[in-house]
Design a protein that fits this description.
With 138 residues, the protein is of the alpha+beta class. The chain has a 6-stranded antiparallel β-sheet.
Length: 138
């Protein structure tokens, strides 16, 4: 950790409109880990399963928030440039947990792994997101 990191104010997560509609709740936020939860109810597709698009939307949000928190330690911001996901299984009810942890925290790019699990701790989806760090515009 650099002296610049010690003096930087960490960015705090603010939910967007979609996050609020999906019922996302922030559990933990730091450079090393961002954790959120989301109900399955209200985020299901027509077959009664958790919608894959909902998993991607919440996974991308949590991974991007993690990148912006890191970027804030450098006086920068972050924008997503790549996201990919593998759906392992689905859910019909309950609450999912979304956890983003860094794979790479650079000065130009960050890459995070985002795991989505059910209440039993079973992996539902794995995402990888890469964000580009940019200077903040005044």
């Amino acid at each position: 950790m650099t002296a610049e990191t010690h003096n930087a104010e960490l960015w705090k997560i603010t939910l967007g409109e979609l996050d609020e509609k999906m019922g996302v709740k922030i559990v933990e936020e730091s450079v090393q880990r961002v954790v959120a939860t989301m109900p399955v109810e209200g985020n299901r597709q027509s077959f009664g399963l958790l919608h894959g698009g909902a998993s991607l939307a919440v996974g991308e949000a949590v991974g991007s928030w993690a990148a912006v928190i890191h970027a804030s330690t450098l006086g920068k911001t972050a924008v997503g440039v790549d996201v990919s996901a593998t759906h392992h299984k689905s859910a019909r009810e309950g609450t999912i947990t979304i956890t983003a942890t860094p794979i790479h925290l650079g000065g130009t790019l960050t890459t995070h792994e985002v795991l989505i699990t059910n209440e039993a701790g079973q992996r539902l989806c794995t995402l990888r997101i890469t964000n580009l760090l940019l200077d903040r515009k005044n």
